[in-house]
């Protein structure tokens, strides 16, 4: 391989990554079919529902025609798909505004919250994961294990409730709802986001930390680690030079999972702190049965998940010499 | 500068390594303390090699690791260990732990697993020199290339830039030796460094090891379960059994005049002989015939070739009550033959005949009676017996399945079967994970016997066992054959085992059958060149064997990638004929000894 | 039974704590409503958001109902629905996984492909879409919870089953001529029980959290039925006062989920070493 030209060297991984991209797109297509089937076809007649029980059958038929409900399911799906891909998933039934417009108002908020939480929790997760892996089986590890185990099992509203009680009600440090003022100063910005980021962070740190620990420990059990110890390699060098490069695959995968949780899983946190993000928008869509909006939100979350997993796969391929060489 | 030049004057008199009353204790699963090494003492003079020999679990590796002050999984080391001026509990640089990878180095059993898969080999080889500061980066690299050369690795200058997965097991094992020698250590510990290799590779690796260890003048500890290998590498032998020393002496003394009973058992088992006399199998129409089998893995293309073809045109015949051995190196397709016969893998061409009747290619088209008559036994009893079931259930299921026997009758038959394999009837209620390796292998056999088969396919059934247990199982197989008249297709990579048990032997090389014939014909040439290589690679129980094995370098005739019908052995054949072997496919020759070989060389040439 | 008790004795402290919590909640789910001091729906206290007192151990809620009584009946919903849902999810997921492991290759391909598709819809999102489409009557809600976690269980069970199906003892049974059903149920399934139970336990925790979350958002159990999540939702107005009515049900959920997690962790670790 030392003699191969650079272009040839990248052909292997490029093909692997291209395969993953195609697979992800195909999966996304299937996902869209599932979502459309569940939300667009199965629930029964939207026209009937809009008009209520009192409507005559002519009225219903007229509305059905107007809404295009009398055409075959496949045609409706393809049209819906084309609209979604074109970035225009139609009008919100409730707000009477284009869904695209509603979403574009909310999307930056969701991205900000997810980004801040990532910045806050990933370092802690690594700290927790590495610390408990290297102290494996000893007191620190056991304490961290029980702590993170409890943290992943806590319902978010309990964490949020306690946070509000402590920081807003008792200490009066932080606002209990998240309103970001126009052009905030950095201080205002941090104060506004502190609470949702902390509450979301609890779950992410625990979950990601546990997965990082597991990934490192799986490597620590492999014979090359014992060999490195017998070469006289220090603990620090062992973890950073020998183990982590091999654990990149599972770790980036865990990060993709955690981040996708941040994106779509912030439902409770957004609701409690009245934060105008996509997740609470989706909850509103469910409550008001605003299907176009619901479908668009669901597709965004699924696409994000697939994108994150795709990125993680790509990183894992590039980090593994065996895969890198195709 | 060599290691000798660094010896402190005060130490030249004393032994280099001194171990007194070494004990290692671990916590058993039930919480009690378990001594896995018990009061072991020995000394090694500078420049000598001591072999630690014993069965698995005898504590060899544990002792070897404790020389580096290292204990696995919370084991406790007690006693006195001194290597040079470093001791077990010495402070700072005077402790054994501080010498790890520097003055004391280690070569692990499976180099394939002991290299870090994500770093280049060179980085790993020179790492000890860099972390211990014994050489600069450039110096270390230069030294590494010298070592690669001394270890006869191909392309010494370039091989370091590869990743472990791009190298073969034998190459990695030698690279690991280079890693162990890079700091010019005083003491090198070899832990079963050739156990994972094929015999033919083992010779080359052993020769390379012996050369570099001699050149370096280092003291050595060589851990192995194979007396013949140890005889080549060591000056002295220490025989271990269950963590205790049974005997220690010079190699020749141990081999020729063993003082201890246990050593004698080991020596006897090293070259198995089966005592049960088996009458010559009945001649006549064969029980099983395999004719022109081609098989492989992966999807099959339109021309009927598998994506990864393994067997090409394999034929063999097994008479009633006969034992036919199949040998070949790892990956030669031995197991695949058994899988085809059992119906687990459908061949892409050829037929399997049982009593002259063709067997369906795949399982689901075979009748239950056909299935009953051919049973398969796998190598590793640990994964061949379902841990969720008791021994009685495992055997009982076979009885119910083929004969509809259940209840009291089944229990009686299970007891009979257990008696047949020399286990007490009470074992029936036990689960397999409570049994020892040898006992499990017996149950594994009993399950096949329960079907009252005509033919048992034994896939490496003795390979995972220690020599002494292996001999007992071989004996049992011979007795069963004598008493029940069952035939065997006996697969092994070890020619000595096959010779002990079988009437006929087939040699597989890369999925072709290069030689076949009566077992006694394998006692002396003429052989097929590959058989010759295989037989001459088996270490013998004498100290000068390794120096005697001459290796002719292959003429290196280029072979097309897929073989193209040419002899598959061509790239490695030392006696290939230019212009013939690389242009035409070899003919099948009948030799006077009764063997048939697939080779261009004539009988006279092969005998020479 | 004996061996169960012995196994329980060997658990580390955290495992015993977990086991205690789990047993406690099982007992509450079964017996809770019978020992409740008041009917859960009746207004028994003038004062809303009252603190703990002799008559009302956990105080009163936003309408003056007894929090303890409501909690006891809510726990039955939370534990019961989640248990049924996880049983359905595991039966479907593991059943399909076994089919994939011992069945023909194309079946495995189809099943794995479909489950991979479903798994790329984040579970909360999937549940929301289903609720929007079908509503949330008790039966539908249980099915939705189950369906949401089928793909995850399938994935774990399939990887276990495929690994086991490759082992030599399954190969031997196959060579003997055993049918697929026998291979799946007798050779493979018994050996995947332990890790499978751990997975089922974890999924139970996820389902409890999802159900409570849905109810907390008003999308889960509908009044007059109330699970623990609904109780938290009802009493959000008491948050500012730190009312027991909101803390108690939230802590109840946490003690259930944390308990299950501690138990599984201890049980699986004990065996691994
Ligand atoms: N299920 C499989 N799929 C693809 N390739 C396989 C499979 N099983 C075996 N092979 C390949 O087929 C070849 C022959 O394998 P086989 O197991 O028959 O060899 P063997 O002689 O029994 O080797 P060993 O001594 O290591 O057991 C090897 O190259 C192996 O990698
Ligand atoms: S045919 Fe030629 S290459 Fe093959 S074994 Fe015989 S001599 Fe060697
Ligand atoms: Mg094999």
Keywords summarizing the entry:
heterotrimer; A: 326 residues; C: MetI-like fold; binds adenosine-5'-triphosphate; binds iron/sulfur cluster; binds magnesium ion
Shape of chain B: globular
Outline the low-pLDDT stretches of chain B.
1-12
CATH superfamily of the largest domain in chain B: P-loop containing nucleotide triphosphate hydrolases
Q: How large is the radius of gyration of chain B?
A: 26 Å
From the 3D structure, determine the CATH topology of chain C.
MetI-like fold
Query: Given this structure, which CATH class of chain C is correct?
Result: Mainly Alpha
The CATH class of the largest domain in chain B: Alpha Beta
Mean pLDDT of chain B: 86
Low-confidence stretches of chain C: none
Helix content of chain B: 25-40%
Question: What ligand species are in this complex?
Answer: adenosine-5'-triphosphate, iron/sulfur cluster, magnesium ion
CATH architecture heading of the largest domain in chain B: 3-Layer(aba) Sandwich
Write structural notes for this entry.
The complex is a heterotrimer of chains A (326), B (608) and C (273). Chain A is mainly alpha-helical. Chain A has 14 helices and no strands. The relative contact order of chain A is 0.14. Chain B folds into three domains: 2-270, 3-Layer(aba) Sandwich (Rossmann fold); 288-522, P-loop containing nucleotide triphosphate hydrolases (Rossmann fold), CATH 3.40.50.300; 524-608, no CATH class. Chain B contains 21 helices and 22 strands. With 608 residues, chain B is α/β, with parallel strands linked by helices. Chain B is 32% helix and 23% strand. The radius of gyration of chain B is 26 Å and the shape is globular. Chain C has a single domain (14-27, 59-257), classed as MetI-like (MetI-like fold, Orthogonal Bundle), CATH 1.10.3720. The mean pLDDT of chain C is 86. At the A-C interface, α1, α6, α7, α10 and α11 of A face α4, α5, α8 and α10 of C.
């Amino acid at each position: 391989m030392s003699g191969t030209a650079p272009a040839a060297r990248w052909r292997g991984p490029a093909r692997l990554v291209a395969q993953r991209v195609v697979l992800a797109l195909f999966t996304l297509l299937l996902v869209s079919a599932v979502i459309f089937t569940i939300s667009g076809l199965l629930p029964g007649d939207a026209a009937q529902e809009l008009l209520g029980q009192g409507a005559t059958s002519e009225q219903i038929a007229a509305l059905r025609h107007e809404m295009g409900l009398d055409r075959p399911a496949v045609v409706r799906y393809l049209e819906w798909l084309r609209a979604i891909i074109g970035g225009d998933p139609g009008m919100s039934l409730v707000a009477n505004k284009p869904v695209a417009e509603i979403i574009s108002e909310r999307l930056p908020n969701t991205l900000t919250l997810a980004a801040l939480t990532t910045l806050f929790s990933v370092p802690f997760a690594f700290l927790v994961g590495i610390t408990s892996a290297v102290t494996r089986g000893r007191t620190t590890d056991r304490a961290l294990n029980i702590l993170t185990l409890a943290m992943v099992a806590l319902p978010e509203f309990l964490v949020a409730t306690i946070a509000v009680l402590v920081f807003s009600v008792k200490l009066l440090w932080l606002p209990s709802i998240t309103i970001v003022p126009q052009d905030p100063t950095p201080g205002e910005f941090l104060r506004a986001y502190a609470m949702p980021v902390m509450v979301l962070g609890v779950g992410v740190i625990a979950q990601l930390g546990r997965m990082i620990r597991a990934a490192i420990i799986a490597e620590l059990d492999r014979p090359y680690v014992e060999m490195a110890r017998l070469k006289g390699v220090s603990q620090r060098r062992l973890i950073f030079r020998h183990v982590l490069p091999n654990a990149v695959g599972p770790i980036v995968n865990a990060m993709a999972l955690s981040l996708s949780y941040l994106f779509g899983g912030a439902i409770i946190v957004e609701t409690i702190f009245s934060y105008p993000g996509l997740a609470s928008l989706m909850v509103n869509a469910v409550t008001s049965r605003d299907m176009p909006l619901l479908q668009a939100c669901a597709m965004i979350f699924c696409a994000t998940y697939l994108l994150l997993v795709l990125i993680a796969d790509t990183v894992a391929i590039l980090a593994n010499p065996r895969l890198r060489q195709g | 500068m060599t290691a000798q030049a660094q010896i402190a004057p005060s130490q030249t008199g004393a032994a280099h390594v001194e171990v007194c009353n070494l004990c290692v204790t671990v916590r058993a699963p039930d919480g009690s303390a378990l001594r896995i090494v018990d009061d072991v003492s020995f000394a090694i003079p500078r420049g000598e090699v001591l072999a630690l020999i014993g069965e698995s679990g005898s504590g060899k590796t544990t002792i070897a690791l404790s020389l580096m002050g290292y204990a696995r999984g919370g084991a406790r080391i007690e006693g006195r260990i001194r290597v040079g001026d470093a001791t077990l509990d010495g402070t700072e640089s005077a402790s054994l732990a501080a010498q790890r990878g520097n003055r004391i180095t280690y070569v692990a059993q499976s180099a394939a697993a002991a290299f870090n898969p994500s770093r280049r080999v060179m980085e790993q080889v020179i790492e000890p020199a860099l972390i211990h500061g014994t050489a600069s980066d450039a110096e270390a690299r230069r030294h590494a290339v010298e070592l690669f050369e001394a270890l006869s690795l191909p392309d010494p200058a370039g091989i370091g830039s590869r990743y472990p997965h791009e190298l073969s097991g034998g190459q990695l094992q030698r690279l690991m030796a280079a890693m162990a020698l890079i700091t010019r250590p005083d003491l090198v510990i070899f832990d079963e460094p050739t156990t994972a290799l094929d015999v033919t590779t083992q010779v080359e690796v052993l020769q390379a090891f012996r050369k570099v260890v001699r050149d370096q003048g280092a003291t050595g500890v060589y851990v192995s379960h194979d007396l013949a290998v140890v005889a080549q590498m060591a000056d002295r032998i220490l025989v271990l059994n269950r963590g205790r020393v049974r005997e220690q002496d010079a190699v020749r003394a141990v081999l020729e005049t063993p003082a201890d009973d246990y050593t004698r058992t080991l020596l006897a088992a090293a070259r198995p002989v089966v005592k049960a006399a088996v009458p010559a199998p009945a001649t006549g129409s064969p029980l099983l015939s395999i004719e022109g089998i081609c098989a492989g893995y992966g999807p099959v293309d339109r021309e009927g070739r598998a994506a990864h073809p393994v067997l090409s045109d394999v034929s063999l015949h097994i008479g009633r009550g006969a034992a036919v051995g199949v040998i070949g190196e790892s990956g030669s397709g031995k197991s695949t033959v058994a899988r085809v016969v059992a119906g687990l893998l459908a061949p892409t061409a050829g037929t399997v005949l049982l009593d002259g009747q063709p067997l369906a290619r795949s399982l689901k088209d075979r009748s239950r009676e056909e299935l009953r008559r051919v049973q398969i036994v796998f190598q590793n009893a640990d994964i061949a017996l379902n841990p969720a079931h008791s021994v009685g259930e495992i055997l009982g299921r076979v009885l119910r399945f083929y004969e509809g026997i259940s209840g009291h009758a089944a229990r009686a038959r299970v007891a009979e079967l257990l008696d047949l394999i020399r286990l007490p009837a009470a074992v029936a209620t036990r689960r397999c994970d409570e049994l020892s390796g040898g006992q499990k292998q017996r149950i594994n056999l009993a399950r096949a016997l329960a079907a009252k088969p005509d033919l048992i396919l034994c896939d490496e059934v003795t390979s995972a066992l220690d020599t002494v247990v292996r001999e007992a199982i071989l004996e049992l197989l011979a007795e069963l054959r004598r008493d029940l008249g069952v035939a065997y297709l006996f697969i092994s990579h070890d020619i000595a085992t096959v010779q002990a048990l079988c009437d006929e032997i087939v040699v597989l090389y890369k999925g072709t059958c290069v030689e076949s014939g009566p077992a006694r014909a394998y006692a002396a040439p003429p052989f097929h060149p590959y058989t010759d290589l295989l037989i001459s690679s088996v270490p013998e129980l004498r100290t000068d064997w390794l120096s005697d094995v001459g290796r002719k370098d292959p003429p290196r005739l280029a072979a097309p990638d897929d073989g193209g019908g040419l002899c598959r052995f061509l790239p490695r054949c030392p006696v290939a004929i230019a212009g013939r072997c690389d242009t035409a496919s070899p003919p099948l020759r009948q030799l006077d000894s009764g063997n048939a070989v697939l080779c261009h060389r004539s009988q006279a040439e092969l005998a020479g | 039974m004996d061996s169960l008790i012995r196994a329980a004795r060997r658990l580390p402290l955290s495992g015993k704590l977990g086991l205690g919590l789990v047993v406690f909640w099982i007992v509450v789910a079964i017996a809770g409503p019978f020992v409740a001091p008041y009917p859960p729906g009746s207004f028994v206290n003038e004062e809303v958001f009252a603190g703990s007192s002799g008559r009302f151990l956990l105080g009163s809620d936003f309408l003056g109902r007894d929090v303890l009584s409501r909690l006891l009946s809510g726990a039955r919903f939370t534990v019961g629905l989640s248990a049924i849902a996880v049983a359905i999810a595991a039966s479907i997921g593991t059943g399909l996984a076994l089919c994939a492991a011992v069945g023909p290759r194309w079946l495995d391909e189809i099943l794995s492909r479909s489950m991979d598709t479903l798994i790329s819809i984040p579970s909360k999102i999937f549940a929301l879409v289903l609720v929007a489409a079908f509503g949330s009557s008790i039966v539908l809600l249980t099915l939705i919870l189950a369906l949401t976690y089928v793909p995850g269980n399938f994935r774990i069970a399939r990887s276990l089953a495929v690994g086991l199906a490759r082992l030599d003892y399954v190969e031997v049974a196959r060579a003997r001529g055993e049918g697929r059903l026998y291979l799946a149920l007798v050779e493979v399934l018994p050996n995947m029980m332990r890790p499978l139970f751990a997975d089922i336990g974890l999924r139970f925790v996820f389902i409890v959290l999802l159900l409570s979350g849905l109810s907390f958002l008003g999308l889960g159990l509908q009044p007059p039925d109330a699970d623990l999540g609904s109780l938290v939702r009802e009493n959000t107005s008491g948050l500012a006062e730190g009312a027991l009515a909101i803390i108690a049900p939230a802590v109840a959920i946490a003690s259930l989920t944390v308990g299950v997690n501690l138990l599984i962790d201890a049980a699986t670790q004990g065996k691994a070493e």
